[in-house]
Amino acid sequence: MTTLTSTTDTVTRDALAVLQPGFAGTTAPDWLLRRVGEGLSSVGLFGRNIETPEQLSALTAQLRAERDDVLVAIDEEGGDVTRLEVRHGSSFPGNLALGAVDDPGLTRAVARELGRRLAECGVNLNWAPSADVNSNPGNPVIGVRSFGADPHLVARHTAAYVEGLQAAGVAACTKHFPGHGDTAVDSHHALPRIDVDLDTLHARELVPFRAAIAAGSKSVMSAHILLPALDPDRPATLSPRILTGLLREELGYDGLIVTDGMEMQAISSTYGIERGSVLAIAAGADAICVGGGLDDEDTVLRLRDALVAAVRTGELPEERLADAAARVRALASWTRRARGAVPEPGAATQEGTAPGTGIASDIGLVAARRAVQVSGTAEPLTEPAYVAAFTPVANIAVGDETPWGIAAELARILPGTGTDTYNSGTEAPVTAVLDAAGDRRIVVVVRDAHRHPWMTDAVDALIAERPDTVVVEMGVPQESPRGALYVATHGAARVCGQAAAEAVTGSAGPSGA
How far apart are CA 84 and CA 70, in angstroms? Predict the structure, then answer.
């Protein structure tokens, strides 16, 4: 058994320091403020915690009144995964759109402007970017969250994103190490397995992470995936071979290692969150992300006590827990120093630019317009249309509360445009669309149609009946272009919908940065 060389209070504070919990509500509950005062160093924010930028700023100020250097983390990838704009859709396109443009300078500018907005609201750690190479077209959880399927394209945009975000004083968290792109299972629901050899992993999955490390990513998030070529027994989050042997020693990474959400079924249904958290810290992780679904004080206390008990029994070396807590505090110190470099609101020197950056404040829309790809020879829409939104079940990372599509923007451009939503359970969707559309031209909006046969069948049937149908793909485009006009947006952010509506009506704004 390990002999403790410090007080129980120190171990308890270190155990609190490595947790990144969430909470319910738009103000910080008393229990959370109390735990921050006792040593909790990080807090995770989700869509449920955010209403407006002003409210978010007040919330983060509440937390910093207890501890000035608290890490306030958020899962704000932009694109389909947004917490800052969960109720309206993101002002920034996601990674696939940026990869489709393939202008690292644009990616850097988008990330810097996103970081600036986060920093203004008091957020200083972003669980982004996704550095996963989307090599499996059927991937149910990554998709448009990836910059693409080419490892070197993903690498250059990952590095640019890290640089842009951290230039705004917000720490990047590159994920999901060592790569979640070649999975057919969502780790929110089960434990994915990637059966490729070491040569493939080094030539594909690890290329973007090497670039992120070279760019100075302040943190890296582990994936709950099993890679037998690296460790046949434990998923990456719990594997000393992967977190310490590969990431720390082989790749030379010295920043903060954060776990993906420990309540995800890949961990919670196999190890349990308490046991999983102990194993993760022992394996080399420094911070435990929990709170996407578990958001109460009891969870924090259970994890704290599990870590303390593991130190007492010798299962978790006290030195390892202390090292993890020190890395959390070191990142908190960096964010506090970086905060002074962020311009105050209203510091813009010229109209139309973000304060103090020289970057266009609508850089997200600029990027979304550049990402749109249009094929087909049909005339643009000039009369009110009918939008049929074919909606799949959203994965947990994206959520189903954020609106998407082009109907609202198209109705603004062409008043009288109507819309309805259809899903895999809709009876006779083709007949329903034709009846609802009447004489209006049909615009079918899909999301990852290649993964949903019911969508492709319905689209083909509609085109057979109405050859002038317009198809807008807001997921990963895979199929050959369909319809009189085929528009690929490479994501479903609000600005992607705006750019698509402009494209199908011929009213597109400027596309240059």
Answer: 19
pLDDT category, 2, cuts 50, 70, 90?
A: very low
Question: Of the listed 186, 260, 362, 448, which one is catalytic?
Answer: 260
Answer whether residue 360 shows pLDDT above 90: no
Q: How far apart are CA 238 and CA 266, in angstroms?
A: 11
Which of 180, 188, 224, 490 is labelled catalytic?
188
Beta strand segments in 87-235, E = 125-126, 171-177, 219-222
Nearest-CA neighbor of 291 among 19, 69, 36? 19
Asked if residue 325 lies in contact with residue 13, where contact means CB atoms within 8 angstroms, the answer is yes
Inform me whether the pLDDT recorded for 342 exceeds 80: no
Is 152 labeled as catalytic in the residue annotation?
no
**CB of 258 within 8 A of CB of 222?**
yes
Contacts of 469 (CB under 8 A, 6+ apart): 441, 442, 443, 444, 459, 462, 463, 483, 484
- Is the pLDDT at 484 greater than 50, yes or no? yes
Residue 188 annotated to the active site = yes
Q: What is the pTM of this model?
A: 0.93
Residue type, 259: T
Q: Tell which residue, 485, 470, 486, 491, has the closest CA to residue 370.
A: 491
